[in-house]
Amino acid sequence: FCLTLKVILFMLDGSAVDMRDPVLDLNVLTNEIKQYSEKLATIPALVFLNKSDADPDLFDYNKGRVTYHSPYDVVCGSAKEGTVKSIQETITKLHRLLQKADPLKFPTYDYENIK
Which residue of 4, 21, 23, 73 has the smallest Cβ count within 10 Å? Predict the structure, then answer.
């Protein structure tokens, strides 16, 4: 599967309602990927910090920590709320990563005029 995989999307719990640490979770996931395959570890990635609808103060605190420690871009939102802005931003950033990985298969797309 490493040969066809173009982008990795990490979805992390930004509210830590289950007492998990999203920075630690991202470190564990990236280290496991590196241990599995150095090639896989070079694939572009994006972090979606989920549950922005939960505890806002804790989410903002974790957002700052994840953004600081993450080697990847971080997009925030709520899968439950399904805010159009966060979904569109995530799709746009994923598509740009895919374009870099394979420009012929993923041509330029007009992100501003999605209807």
Answer: 4
